[in-house]
């Protein structure tokens, strides 16, 4: 694979010097099977009346398909609509300029569409996708082939389109999106991501009231009227009626507060509230228990597989837990043509996160990569993608793209043990009974610019300051200087023997890089709620790397106070090069107050055992060099 040491593609990047903003556009309502009207915008190349039949990209969004500028700004707009996420607008222009039709949709209960929202990616919303595809393939400009893409929620909508098994849908690209909604976003490690659900819920509520200024700033009031109405809605009365219907939408944070384990049922859940419910789900779910499973993509992977469509799993190392989500999706949905890419990116891929020097604007040409993928699957073009290995990943610090046929690439276990005097050592302890007492700092956290914030602050970079001061508040163990470079690529696994004075608690493990000047760089992390310490004896519901647990209430086990328990869990995947002379650090915490629920009845202290019978350790996947 070619490598130039920068965040560039492994193929020749050809950026168009100037993209024409001219395109044919119309917007209207499509009426669904139950009478609900869905707002749709269609973009075609300016010369689309030439009789050529084109492939279509379907982009379904919960965040407005476009916004309406106030006059006189609306009169000078160079494009027919204004998109508040510039990267989405650029992607659309690239595809339309490349000869595609592009269809934007406000999903049911959002934007200018009618209907309500009872959960994310509801069965009715998924069925709407199939009806929209039916409409697309009937159009004179359609070649009968449809692809779908999107970032975050919109990526989930692209993936859920496959649950319909529609024969026209040949390829999808769920980008920076969850696969298991419980572990990937709402409850990583079984711990409620309170900052996310609260912030995302507030953002959605503002959109549902057509008040985007509440989340983007009051300046928006001066330039925007809110969501774009369809063209026939001259007096905005239809838009206003649709917005009125959204006031009964459910609140994701309130629902999350009523859940602890995967199979818990929220009081507001319309699908489980009535034991005799006749609500028909789309497809065949793997597990019908729990409110979150109803709208979790992983629960329908068999339908995705049966669709036969290619799936491009696409994420970044610093995108919450979504890199692991992309890996699980890739390993589980193994349709021909499916691919995996993992870059040094934040949510959305706009920033290249460099732990050694901070974030840089990403120079990776995401749109060209997506065009190559869809050109191959929707146009049968030989774009070079068909001859490449299926996995591409970026090794940080080395600053190099690499490829493999599967994930993870071959690696050897490199084990470091927690030792005396806060040492991280390659030799197993030989002492009889050694412990470290940690007084949990309930204000400790990972800051305002972390991997867990980027999923809402999509345009903002991820940056971790020097963690030396933060580590002074944690239980940190540091290795001697490395005598050679060490590449860690894959899923590190923490195995900690811990005791708590209460029956519950949380443990966070941070993997860090200490340079010659004692600057501490964040590499990755993992976390677990201690009542989930037991590993599962049942088969995983999807393919994954590392220890598996169901996170179900029946498999939970409260701790016996002050009794040591072995806790094994994986850290978020990464590909990182520790340089010779640097030191590896493992830091343990009892909470991350910046992002996760701090248990009110959680322990004030944690006891970590590190002796011959209870050797606390971390296993790093070391790639031979």
Quick description:
The chain has 14 helices and 27 strands.
Task: Describe the overall structure.
Strands 1-2-5-3-6-7-9-10-13-14 form a 10-stranded mixed sheet, sandwiched between helices. Strands 15, 16, 17, 19, 20, 23, 24, 26 and 27 form a 9-stranded antiparallel sheet that branches. Strands 18-25-21-22 form a 4-stranded antiparallel sheet, with no helix packed on it. Residues 1-8 have low confidence and may be disordered. The protein has 14 helices and 27 strands. With 625 residues, it is an alpha+beta fold. The protein has 2 domains: 23-404, Rossmann fold, CATH 3.40.50.1820; 412-623, Galactose-binding domain-like (Jelly Rolls, Sandwich). The protein is globular.
CATH fold assignment of the largest domain: Rossmann fold
Which structural class should the secondary elements be placed in? alpha+beta
Calculate the mean pLDDT score and round it. Answer: 93
* Low-pLDDT windows of residues: 1-8
Q: What's the structural domain tally?
A: 2
Looking at the overall shape, the CATH architecture of the largest domain is 3-Layer(aba) Sandwich
Number of helices: 14
CATH class of the largest domain: Alpha Beta
- Give the assembly state of these chains: single chain
Strand tally is 27
Describe the biggest sheet?
10 strands, mixed
Q: What fraction, in percent, of the residue positions are helical?
A: 10-25%
The name of the CATH superfamily of the largest domain reads Alpha/Beta hydrolase fold, catalytic domain
The first-to-last residue Cα distance is 16 Å
Structural Rg:
25 Å
Strand content: 25-35%
Write out the strand line-up for the largest beta sheet, numbering strands in chain order.
1-2-5-3-6-7-9-10-13-14
Dominant shape: globular
């Amino acid at each position: 694979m070619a490598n130039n040491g920068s965040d560039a593609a492994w193929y020749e990047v050809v950026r168009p010097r100037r993209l024409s903003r001219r395109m044919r556009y119309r917007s209207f309502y499509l009426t669904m099977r139950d009478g609900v009207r869905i707002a749709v915008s269609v973009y075609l190349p300016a010369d689309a009346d030439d009789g050529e039949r084109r492939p279509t990209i379907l982009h379904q969004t919960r965040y407005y398909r476009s916004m309406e500028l106030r006059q006189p700004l609306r009169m000078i707009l160079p494009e027919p609509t204004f998109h508040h996420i510039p990267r989405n607008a650029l992607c659309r222009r690239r595809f339309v300029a490349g000869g595609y039709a592009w269809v934007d949709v406000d999903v049911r209960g959002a934007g200018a569409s009618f209907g309500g929202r009872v959960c994310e990616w509801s069965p009715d919303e998924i069925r709407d996708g199939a009806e929209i595809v039916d409409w697309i393939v009937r159009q004179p400009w359609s070649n009968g082939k449809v692809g779908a893409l999107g970032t975050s929620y919109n990526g989930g909508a692209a993936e859920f389109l496959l649950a319909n098994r529609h024969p026209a849908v040949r390829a999808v690209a769920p980008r920076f999106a969850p696969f298991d909604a419980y572990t990937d976003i709402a409850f990583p490690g079984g711990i409620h991501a309170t900052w996310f659900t609260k912030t995302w819920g507030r953002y959605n509520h503002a959109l549902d009231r057509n008040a985007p200024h509440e989340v983007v700033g009051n300046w928006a009031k001066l330039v925007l009227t809110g969501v774009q109405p369809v063209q026939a809605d001259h007096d905005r009365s239809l838009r206003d009626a649709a917005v009125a219907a959204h006031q009964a939408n459910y609140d994701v944070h309130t629902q999350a507060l009523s859940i602890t384990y995967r199979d818990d049922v929220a009081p507001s859940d319309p699908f489980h509230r009535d034991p005799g419910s006749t609500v028909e789900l789309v497809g065949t779910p793997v597990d019908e228990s729990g409110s979150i499973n109803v709208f979790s993509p992983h629960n329908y992977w068999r339908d995705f597989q049966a669709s036969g469509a290619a799936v491009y799993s696409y994420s970044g190392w610093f995108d919450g837990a979504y890199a692991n989500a992309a890996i699980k999706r890739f390993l589980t949905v193994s349709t021909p043509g499916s691919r995996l890419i993992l870059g040094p990116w934040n949510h959305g891929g706009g920033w290249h996160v460099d732990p050694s020097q901070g974030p840089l604007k990403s120079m990776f040409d995401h749109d060209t990569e997506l065009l190559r993928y869809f050109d191959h699957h929707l146009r049968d073009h030989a774009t070079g993608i068909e001859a490449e290995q299926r996995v591409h990943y970026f090794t940080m610090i080395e600053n190099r793209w690499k490829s493999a046929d599967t994930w993870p690439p071959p690696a050897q276990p490199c084990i470091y043990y927690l030792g005396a005097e806060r040492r991280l050592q390659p030799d197993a302890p030989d002492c009889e009974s050694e412990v470290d007492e940690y007084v949990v700092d309930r204000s400790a956290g990972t800051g305002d610019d972390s991997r867990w914030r980027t999923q809402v602050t999509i345009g903002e970079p991820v940056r971790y300051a020097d963690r030396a001061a933060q580590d002074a508040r944690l239980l940190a163990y540091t290795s001697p200087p490395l005598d050679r470079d060490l590449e860690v690529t894959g899923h590190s696994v923490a195995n900690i023997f811990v005791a708590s004075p209460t029956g519950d608690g949380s443990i966070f493990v941070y993997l860090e890089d200490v340079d010659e000047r004692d600057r501490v760089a964040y590499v990755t992390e993992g976390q677990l709620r201690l009542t989930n310490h037991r590993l599962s004896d049942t088969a995983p519901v999807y393919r994954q790397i590392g220890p598996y647990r169901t996170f179900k209430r029946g498999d939970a086990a409260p701790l016996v106070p002050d009794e040591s328990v072995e806790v094994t869990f994986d850290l978020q995947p990464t590909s990182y090069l520790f340089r010779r002379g640097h030191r590896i650090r493992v830091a343990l915490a009892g909470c991350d107050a910046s992002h996760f629920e701090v248990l009110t009845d959680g322990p004030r202290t944690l006891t970590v055992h590190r002796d011959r019978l209870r050797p606390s350790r971390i296993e790093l996947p070391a790639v031979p060099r």
